[in-house]
Design a protein that fits this description.
Helix content is about 40%, strand content about 20%. With about 675 residues, the protein is of the alpha/beta class. The strands form five sheets. Strands 10, 11, 12, 13, 16, 17, 18, 19 and 22 form a nine-stranded mixed β-sheet that branches. The two termini are about 50 Å apart.
Length: about 675
């Protein structure tokens, strides 16, 4: 192990004192800070060398002598408040904090800002605050400052920084009209309007990027000509920023949605509260302002029917009893966010005079094999007992496997059991033959029974083919969801000359166009693709994303819900790109962008993260990322930099109705 104490002593003596730097408080501060903690682990042996070293985001930690020289030039006092531009690894901020009372530091690379903040907190610095943002704009809310140090070279001194100096304050900054030629200036504020400038000699720093600095070319050197900006800054300029779901203004989003008949709202995980809350907020406004009457979700038909009965005041609160959403993963729909939305739907429906305009809540998925069989038999028992008896015999083919239908697929693969396709299809055909007679008695109840019978038939085929080819089962599932959506739209029909409109809640992997993702290369389609193909531009696809936080998920199928930490996004992902945008929450138009070059630059394929009901952080890249072209996949994208886990409803899980399936999304 290197003797860092001795190396540090040699650095101070040979690199600083020998060059004439004899400011005792600066030398003491440098001696107090372990520089080896601020360089990459594979470069610690060079921590005290007389040279800059590379760090993340293609930046550098400055040469030790230059750091000490700039801090000495600030002529600090113990009570001073200091602003640093260019946090980097946090080393200079730590040295400043050994002298000054308060240090505020701004970094334009979020990965550097976040890591520096964590590092400085771990080292015990309580007088340093780190901001992710454009350093050329300073930190106006904390101004004025007694001293400002800029660790990057700009084409000129930013006026915003000069104005944030206190009277008598000092600003030290490298300036040069050529990227590779700079001089170190000390600017002293004499009065409200007067400044004094000193030249401290030639230096070489990385370029100062920002509104009042250089503009960064995407593939080349920075330029002062302002012909291009970073993609992060373009996204910032082209997006609508908001603080929380409660205070977001959705009027512009609703204008872009226009007269679309179908609005598909995604999620990047099945267990993040902000996704549910924002979907509920958007859906409420679509219902109130644009007349949407259908909410269709990635849930089983029988469970969603309980919700539908509740919001039409035909049953007690379904999320506070054991009947629906009692199978794994219970938290996906039995959570506080969904409960609050369902209560809102019920209150809204109570105000609707024309009941044809009341909102319905429907499930699109096909995993409720057991529940759907029971629903069909119960319905037939009431309206046609003889047919019920016949159906009971036919469904008996599937009864042994109803609680775990994946076993049926395994047995079919091994030819150990005859397939039940003919039997379940016969029951569906019998129902459809009696459509007129049954529906005249109660159209809604017949529609429920018909969809459950259709679900049983599709589920039988799904599990039968599950073990033959994975994409076939995926395609069958999404085709079923699309067909069910079609049936709902037809059932709700036209009211006052206006066709019914639907909001669909599903995972990004279902509602984003599969043709724009790696799924397509595997022969997979999805609901979003089918909707676009059928409805052309009469639809609007909105994806969601996050970088970090907590999520409700299990470690394996059927396992207990855990609150897990979401790992910071992969460096090559869309999520990492959006994490570096200097705002936490935003709405980004893609099909109708505020700036055309944003869509063009987002067409390139990047990694995209998908967390389902299972999350395995230890194998995240292999388990949860796929390649996609975001601008082709969605029409709009909503970003929450940090998200929290959904709050599951507290109740005893109903084990008897447990049904499983082998996918996490």
């Amino acid at each position: 192990m290197s003797n860092f104490v001795e190396l540090k002593r040699q650095m101070i003596e040979h690199q600083m004192v020998a060059r004439g730097l004899r400011d005792e408080q600066v030398l003491a501060a440098v001696n107090a800070v372990p520089r080896e903690k601020f360089v990459p682990s594979d470069l610690v042996e060079f921590a005290y060398h007389d040279a800059p070293l590379p760090i993340a985001a293609r930046q550098t930690i400055s040469q030790p002598y230059i750091v000490a020289l700039m801090i000495a030039a600030l002529q600090l006092k113990a009570e001073d408040r200091v602003l640093e531009i260019g946090t980097g690894s946090g080393y200079a901020a730590a040295v400043l904090a050994e002298i000054a009372a308060e240090v505020y530091t701004v970094e334009r690379h979020k990965i550097l800002a976040d890591s520096a903040r964590s590092r400085l907190v771990e080292m015990g610095y309580t007088n340093i605050e780190v901001l992710f943002g454009d350093g050329t704009l300073g930190w106006q809310s904390q101004a004025p400052f007694d001293a400002i140090a800029v660790a990057a070279g700009g084409p000129e001194v930013p006026q915003s920084l000069k104005e944030q100096l206190a009277i008598g304050g000092r600003l030290v900054i490298p300036v040069g009209d050529q990227i590779h030629t700079q001089k170190l200036l000390r600017i002293r504020r004499i009065s409200e309007t007067d400044y004094q400038e000193e030249d401290l000699g030639a230096v070489h720093f990385v370029p100062l990027i920002g509104v009042s600095g250089w503009e960064e070319e995407e593939a080349g050197e920075p330029t002062k000509a302002k012909v291009s900006t970073s993609l992060e800054e373009l996204i910032y300029q082209s997006s609508e920023h908001f603080g929380s779901v409660e205070d977001v203004d959705l009027d512009k989003l609703l204008h872009r949605i226009g007269n679309s008949r179908l609005v598909l709202l995604g999620e990047a995980s099945h267990g993040s509260a902000e996704f549910y809350e924002m979907r509920a907020r958007i859906t409420r406004e679509l219902i109130e302002k644009k007349g949407f009457t259908i909410v269709a979700v990635e849930a089983d038909w029988p469970d969603a029917s309980h919700i539908n009965h509740f919001i039409h005041n035909r049953s007690p609160d379904p999320l506070l009893v054991d009947a629906p959403f009692s199978r794994f993963p219970t938290w996906m729909w039995a959570n506080q966010s969904v409960l609050e939305f369902c209560h809102w739907l019920k209150r809204f429906n109570a105000t609707v005079v024309d009941k044809d305009l009341a909102v319905g809540f429907y499930g699109l998925d096909l995993y409720s094999l057991n529940s759907s069989i029971e629903a069909v038999l119960n319905y037939l028992q009431e309206v046609d007992p003889e047919t019920a008896e016949l159906a009971r015999g036919r469904y008996g083919c599937l009864t042994p496997w109803a609680n775990d239908p994946s076993i049926y697929g395994q047995l079919m693969l091994n030819k150990q059991y005859k397939k039940c396709e003919k039997e379940v299809l016969a029951t569906l055909r019998d129902l459809l033959k009696q459509r007129l007679a049954y529906s005249e008695a109660d159209g809604q109840r017949f529609f429920d029974a018909e969809q459950n019978a259709r679900l049983v038939a599709n589920a039988e085929r799904y599990y039968r083919t599950l073990y033959y080819a994975e994409q076939n089962s995926w395609n069958q599932r999404d085709q079923h969801m699309f067909d069910t959506l079609q049936s709902i739209l037809k059932f709700r029909g036209t009211v006052n000359g206006v066709k019914s409109k639907a909001v669909i809640w599903e995972h990004n992997s279902h509602i984003g166009d599969a043709r724009a993702t790696q799924m397509s290369a595997r022969g997979e389609l999805n609901l979003g693709q089918l909707v676009r193909e059928k409805y052309k531009r009469d639809n609007y696809l909105i994806g969601f994303g996050t970088d970090h936080g907590t999520v409700a998920a299990a470690s394996e199928w059927g396992g207990p819900m855990e609150v897990k930490q979401v790992q910071p996004a992969h460096i090559d992902s869309y999520e990492r790109l959006f994490h570096q945008v200097p705002t936490d929450n935003f709405i980004l138009p893609l099909i109708k962008p505020l700036q055309q070059n944003v869509r063009r630059k987002l067409l390139a394929e990047r990694l995209e993260r998908a967390i389902g009901v299972i999350y395995r952080p230890e194998s995240e890249l292999q388990s949860h990322y796929f390649y996609a072209s975001l601008a082709r996949q969605f029409d709009e994208y909503i970003w929450f930099d940090e998200t929290r886990a959904v709050e599951p409803l507290s109740r005893q899980q109903n084990k008897a109705g447990l049904e499983t399936f082998p996918f996490g999304i």
